Amino acid sequence: MRHRRIDRLMTREVVSVRGDAPFKEVVRTLSRSRVTAVPVLDGGGRVLGVVSEADLLRKTADQAAVPGGQRAVPGLEAPERAKSEGTRAEELMSAPAVCARPEWTVPEAARLMEVQGVKRLVVVDDEDRPVGIVSRRDLLGVFLREDDDIRREIVEDVLGDTLRLTPDVLSVEVRDGRVDLAGSLPFRRMIPAVERMCATVDGVVSVSCSRLTYDIDDDTERGGGRS
Question: Is the pLDDT confidence value at 140 over 60?
Answer without folding.
Answer: yes
